[in-house]
Automatic annotation (TrEMBL):
Residues 1-21 are annotated as: Disordered. ATP binds at residues 208-215. It comes from the Bacteria. The keyword Nucleotide-binding applies. GO terms for molecular function: 3'-5' DNA helicase activity; ATP binding; DNA binding; hydrolase activity. GO terms for biological process: recombinational repair. This is Helicase-related protein. InterPro entries: DNA_helicase_UvrD/REP (IPR000212), P-loop_NTPase (IPR027417), UvrD-like_ATP-bd (IPR014016), UvrD-like_helicase_C (IPR027785).
Amino acid sequence: MSAPASARPPIHDTHPDFQPETAHLKGTVDAMLRQIDFWEDRDRQMGADLETSIILADEAGEHAAMLSPHVHHPYFGSLKVRVGGREQTLYIGKHGFRDVKGPHSVVGWDSEVGSLFYSDALGWTPRRGGQGVIKRRRQLDIAAKTLHRVTDLYDDEAGGDTGGREEVLLRRLEEGSTAGMRDVVETLQPEQNTAMRYPAGTPVIIQGAAGSGKTTIGFHRLAWMTNAERGPHQARAEACMVLMPNRVLATYAARILPELGIGAVNVTTPESWAIGLLGLEKLEVTDRTLTLLLTDHDNTRRALAWRRAKLLGDARMLDVIRTHLWNRFNASLRGQSLREEVALNRRDPQIFALSDTDLHAILRDVFAADPLSGYRAGFRRAVEDLAISHLNVPDDEEASVLRQLSAPITALLGRIFASTTPVTEARRLLGSPEALAASGLLTEREIALLATDPLSGIPTPRRAHADATELPLMLAVQAFTGGIGRQVGRVLEPFDHVVLDEAQDYSPLLYALLGRATRAGHLTALGDLNQGMHGYKGPSNWEAVQAVLPGAEVLTLGRTYRSTRQITELGARIAATYNRAAQVQGVDRDGAEVQRYTGPADAPNGELPLIAQAVKDAQAAGHVNIAIVTRRAVDADRLAEALRDFDTDAQPITTQEHRFRGGLVVLPVSLAKGLEFSAAIVSSANVQTYDESTEYERRLLYVSASRALHWLGLVSAGELHPLIA
């Protein structure tokens, strides 16, 4: 077992290359400053004319602004390589820099050469030159233009692997948590690097346990995708999207994006993206299935709600909806026709006419083409193309003809498509057993299940609302009728790349829709089947996702880095009772024993004094960012208020509008998932709160107990849950 970082002697006291590396760092900083001064001197950015000079000066200013933040930390590692009998040292940083007048260039971490720093490979084939050989890998800890430590990770002359990579990793893992997701560019492990750089153009599903770094890898993969070396697969940051399960986590994670140079990426939730695309921003989104699962003790009703929600998100529903729309639009077309007189230059007025039969043929062709912009736009385009073709319209008169036909075509489209809105059409489908049966894909039993309402006892908002389980159906109607993708003005285009976090909680139907909305092969899903808190919406296995994303590859991260050995072992014990994924190995990082706080079940103040004591113990151990995790939001609200009587002031995070700013917080497990804290306290950690006989409840307990980096406390008035006792 590795010794704690604090117990190791400072490496820079004895490393023989500390002074030469210090000198090289100074030279690199000076070279960067000279380059920035050159770019910022507008008098030196001269072109052939004033306009060109202004453009050159603006571009130079942008280059200076991009490089300036990296002057204080130019690089974090180096590679000594031999290519064609010649040795050279390459320095690896977050931002590439070319020193045109000296030896102080920096290679970007996201380049193909930069990848060599993270891998275990010792050879590679450069684009030019002979076979390359890695002679040394070295980590360089730099802050504020100062070198603090030199650690060799691999040294050919010293016998190969030095154990330095694990040493650097442990040193980083022993740091406290922050109020935002951490950048791991400097400490990417070989398996993480392989997953992050999986060939572009292939859909990737990354399965990893709590703390395996999958979310961070997804963000880094997005940054890697924006590198020009990706060629035709290169993504534009502003054309990418990250979907996260709630806004608390989205805000927490998005803080890392500017550090990776992709601050323009849109980080949002599936619900926010969906209602934005539907143009229903004032629609309130509920999740009544989750409310029932967390509050109802009738397991029969819970099971029924679970099965119905799963069916709503089944990938077959895409073709159920397509068949329903085909029947609806064909019915709307009966008896319809188009006949319009069109004026053309130097010719007699022409008649453009389409019969009922013609319109049905157009609809059939549009359905077959399945355009990204949707059937309505596709139908309009098809009619316009027929008009231009049938009337032999010259190029210079096309705009005039289309203007003349605009109003009658719009009226025709209104008669066919106007009554088909995503909300009403999805609900019309669910309310019609005949429509559900039309595709032949659903059994009678499944149709009957969709007709039931196990959520009837769960209140609904007074204002217009939609349930989270209905949204994919509404999105499917939108995708077919109005199109799906990235909105650019009035035009829809595919996203360059989409990342899904907590991917085990997204329905196969939503995956199918995102596959339509994104460039082929440009989707990265990050999840853990063991943490499926919203499994009623998610796939039962990754094969269900691969079925709707052709060519998708599942990659498994075999290590978890978040927690100490003691916390990881506890989580593994819980997950072993329902494990849906490969076993995960923790980092051999020793820490404090898991603390258990119990008292009489009938104590006057219940577990309040126990929680207050746990908070004081965690703070005494030096932890600042501490979470008290409850099962429900209402428990968090109640607990935050009650703890004030015990001199414990915790910020409640009970809705998605709250933000995690660090310090002591109390929040439900549904909002804690994806976050990490230096210390975590699981309240009411007993069978009364987490039903031992229900897999869903054990999943909740696993998520609650896996939030801590260094210190974990388990609290119960009465006996602790047997899985953690």
